[in-house]
What we know:
The structure holds two protein chains of two kinds. By secondary structure, chain A is an all-alpha fold. Chain A has a single domain (about 5-100), classed as Orthogonal Bundle (Helix Hairpins). Chain A is built from three helices and no strands. Chain A is elongated, with a radius of gyration of 17 Å. In chain B, about 65% of the residues lie in helices and about 0% in strands. Chain B contains eight helices and no strands. In chain B, α1 (about 15-35) runs antiparallel to α2 and α2 (about 40-60) runs antiparallel to α3. The chains are: A mainly alpha, B mainly alpha.
Amino acid sequence: MSHSLDAYLVLASLMFAIGSFGFLARRNAIAMLMCVEIMLNGVNLAIVAFGMFTPALQGAGQVIALFVMAVAAGEATVGLAIVIAIYRNRRTPLVDEYASMRE
Amino acid sequence: MTVPQTVPYLGWSWDDLVFLVLAGVMLGSSLMVVLSRNIIRSGLFMVLAFAGLAGFYALMGATLVAAAQVLVYMGAISVLILFAVMLTQSKSGPARLVFHSQAWAAGIASFLVGLLLIMSVVFTTWPLAVPTPIAQSARDVAKLLFEHYVLAFEVISLLLLAAVVGGIYLARRDDIPDPADPVTRSGATDPGTEAG
């Protein structure tokens, strides 16, 4: 089980689905960002699994996973800064109360 | 005393047992991140989910990615998110509703996405895949990173710099006096800062 690509890919799919549900359903903006991190980690698991189980990729999976981590760090920084800037104006982290951004 | 080759009474290999335990920890704590009412608890369960993922990387033999996962995700991003949670806590405590009113549609959509992904994984045969993970040391990864992917590496460093500058600009308070502004400069009490 630990030596099959399919098991890792199924786990990555489950993690991505859990994260996407949280991103779509949570009300708190920071919880939504946490769920984005969960989705990114699911994709990263799939990338590393492909890289480790496919010799034709010549080990590029780990390198690409490191790049994904760096981009995720930048995304978390800017995303949290945006959430804090909105919180300073609206005094709430709940996204369904940001109704004035609709117009 | 020697460790038996397989798990006693079950006949599994030790790797399979570690895989199942890590899968349970990772999926369970991911679900708790999504479902938990208290957002600080969500953040701490997220650290646990990242720890399970680092265990998976180590199990596959991707040691450098496992170390980076511990450093970057469990160390840096979790602390960043927990700080943001503390900055945005309102005094009324946790929100009454965790999910908004259209969460049922989100549930159906994400269930279908997960089902589609799992079906496409299960019904596909990967012709180039091998049954055991390849051996790849940190030296191999470093050679690849700094020879073949060095341009992407430099672009990533530029992206991180831009993210830091953008984060500071966005999260900055507007009422902090601008040091270049002559009005606030003349109001400064400490003459030593003027000379500097």
